[in-house]
Amino acid sequence: MRIIIVGGGETGRALCNILTKEGHSITLIEKDQELAKEIAEKTNALIIGADGTEVQTMEEAKISEADAVVAATNDDKSNLMVCEIAKSFNVPKIIARVNSVKNEELFTKMESMEIIPVVGLTVANIKNILESEGFRTVSVVGSGEVEIIEIKVNKDSKLIGQPVSRITKGVVSLITRRNFVTIPKPTTKLAEGDLVVVTVKVEDIPSVVKLFGSK
Questions:
Q1: If residue 213 lies in a helix (H) or strand (E), which one and from where to where?
Q2: So what's the pLDDT on residue 127?
Q3: Distance between CA atoms of 157 and 213, rounded to whole angstroms?
Q4: Domain locations along the chain
Q5: What does the pLDDT read at residue 26?
Q6: Model confidence at 113: pLDDT above 90
Q7: Hey, how many other C-beta atoms are within 10 angstroms of the C-beta on 85?
Q8: What is each CA distance from 108 to 10, 88, 104, 111, in whole angstroms?
Q9: Which fold would CATH assign to domain 1-131?
Q10: How far apart are CA 79 and CA 39, in angstroms?
Q11: 146-152 and 171-177: which strand pairing?
């Protein structure tokens, strides 16, 4: 995948290193020139020392060719601007770090189902979201410890043909199948293409996403 990461903080750097080692094409944008130089000395990824909230910078990063953009700065306003730029270039998957729960609504109001705002974003969360299909955060509960997520049962998922009770680290409340919404029973069996709404603790999101992914 061609992935652009905006923000060279701890999360951005860690994600850059992991994804680069896995063979993804990574471009990391960090506006602090000194920090950008420091990161460039320790990675094979392309590092751009510029402001990721500017269209010109994103064009330099070849955003039109990107499969995903991760807005991982520590400023919600900047992350929102990055999302807006990525949306204007029709980037398939956009992931935003939400630093304050009170700002989450600003991201969810954007008219794009592809924007995935995540409160308390971790490297594990981002990596699993990038590698999964049909994942988005619907809402954040309380102070961010719990999220309501919608996730798709992929064609290679180990959950196909399995009962809802197989999902032990979360509570399944709704299943959408061929545009028909149902409230499942524990014995309801999952099928390829199902959109499943799950209430789950943030720390359990990676394991739930993995369960919906490849066998």
A1: none
A2: 72
A3: 5
A4: 1-131, 134-215
A5: 96
A6: no
A7: 21
A8: 25, 16, 6, 8
A9: Rossmann fold (3.40.50)
A10: 20
A11: unpaired
* β-pair partners for 201: 146
Domain 134-215: CATH superfamily is Regulator of K+ conductance, C-terminal domain (3.30.70.1450)
In angstroms, the Cα distances linking 165 to 11, 184, 189, 208 are 33, 10, 9, 13
Higher pLDDT, 130 or 88: 88
Mean pLDDT of 138-156: 80
Read off the tokens for 115: 């924007």
Residues counted in the chain: 215
Give the start-end residues of each E strand in 9-134: 25-29, 46-48, 68-71, 93-98, 115-119
> Sorting pLDDT into bands at 50, 70 and 90, what band is 141?
confident
Rounded CA separation 154/191 (Å):
9
Identity of residue 187:
T
Question: Comparing 106 with 113, which gets the higher pLDDT?
Answer: 106
CA dist 36 and 82 (Å) reads: 18
Residues 6 or more apart from 172 whose CB is under 8 A from it?
A: 164, 184, 196, 197, 198
* 86 to 6, 54, 55: CA distances (angstroms): 11, 11, 9
Q: Which single residue is written with the structure tokens 């995935």?
A: 116
